[in-house]
């Protein structure tokens, strides 16, 4: 569930809540007027306002997204929000030779009024964290002559030289997951739960699979694959485009959860296949289709082969890749307990498999996208078998060679040099707070060489043969700036300099910006070092201590303390006079597997203990008022807010819990069982980790928020807690968002969410001085 792989998503900076008049009573109008006058005063003083935070253009500047090299290396393409509407993306390009930047696709011109999304597409975008509209994805053909753009439920083919655009189909059905085949002759897509192929040369469509519909689909990723495995597709082209590996998903065994989508003018009931912890998963099979035989209409027994995934069908199909010569399909098969991951090498012609490599762990195996086939028949791999994720090479003879080592973490593989002798990766060699690009020889006989500079966070797209890369850099004082660099890290040209000057969208607010401070403290175990970051307004002193707010996530696979351009939402609190604090407790990401696995089988325990250490630290600072500290979080952070305040009654003055898990038996299989095991086998862990187990500790005034159509952390997580608190006669506030899911997306509702949270904390925490400053 997460913003990142597999946890209840963070989502807070994009999530919001609709104020509930019944819960907040007569104070709503007064709070609204007070907040409005406060924002007016802040704007006049050059301070950031909530309305401007979510307005257009984006305050982060014109930061490019979805960056790619053209296949011939002559262009860089990217999506960028419209200046007049930051929620809509257009497709742009830069010519490498002269640095000229121009718009390739105007989303509004192609689809002036986009069709209403289908429920399946809405769910997919929610799973993939796609928060924009317009050109949200695109792909190049192999020749570098055309780009494929899915838009308005159909697919557009764009000639990059002429700019000519043609709509490949115009159907009532939604075409999704469109791809250009490796050779560029075909466009594949999903229509009505089946895989189709469009032959560009003959301008004809062919249906590849049959029988998709209802609980059965072809070429699509099931719920947990999308939400928790970050696998968003269910089909894979061979490099020579003669075959396609296609997953068949049967969701009939999966329990149906009735999800009530409450809207402002009514409600819908969706019967969602949602595999709750301990219940049955979908059955997933894999087939390899011979494209020409399938197009020719040959019988299934000659046109396709089923890949042997073993006798046990209670497994996860985690990843699928092809060998460079198209003869072998590599399948990552994960057991239900997620303690074993096998890489199966399948003969594409017969479907027969053998195990090429296995990973085992007493806790769990984290998935990656790092499998990289090599021309010699071996492959690159990353593994946490040493306790920290590092790079390995499997030789054609079956020998596993470790390339990197040390008490630091490789994040992801970026690519290979032209001669195949150097591996490039992104990771954290020097500090877990800074992310850089590194190069290391495949023989593993020398340490990694850092390519990028600065004391911040890099995201990199490597060009063919590592001759050049696209790099985006950000740090606490620098919004995202993107450039083209040589393989050695020398700058070639800006793609978007995004200089934070007076003309930048954030320029008017620079003087009010509060810079974060960083430090460490010791975890509750008395020995582990934890990283924190804090915003301290200048006026907060020993003579005038300020209230403080702790923002928490706390769950696995997420890191909140980094030296990057942090969410400007943080500035709203700091500029209002709050000390704003974040701590990465044990169980969070990027400190090695043992650090993350500290919460194994016992969620809601060690994370809580560490956050209370953070509270102790804050209360010991002379510029913090120890009696006025609040706590808030979204998703796992909402869960942590409840678990921490309930297990430490009286320690916090106020709390806000957004979209919280309240009972892990209600959450999905792949995420929950990874960390907690099966409910039938860890009853005490599930009981201890349930919010209702600790509800007798309710004492902290709490605002609870949830989207009423949430299909990730379903609304009944919150309603069960509401009912129990009401039964006990406890008073609390709540905010619900009709029609909104786990992420509250519309900008006007994001404004409302932050105003709601701010108003609550101001009522519960702020001193007269803070109110006089702007509230």
Automatic annotation (TrEMBL):
GO terms for biological process: proteolysis. One of its GO terms (molecular function) is serine-type peptidase activity. Residues 151-480 form the Dipeptidylpeptidase IV N-terminal domain. InterPro entries: AB_hydrolase_fold (IPR029058), Peptidase_S9_cat (IPR001375), Peptidase_S9B_N (IPR002469), Serine_Prot_S9B/DPPIV (IPR050278). Transmembrane segments: none annotated. Residues 22-42 have a biased composition (Low complexity). Residues 571-766 form the Peptidase S9 prolyl oligopeptidase catalytic domain. Residues 1-42, 56-77 are annotated as: Disordered. This is S9 family peptidase.
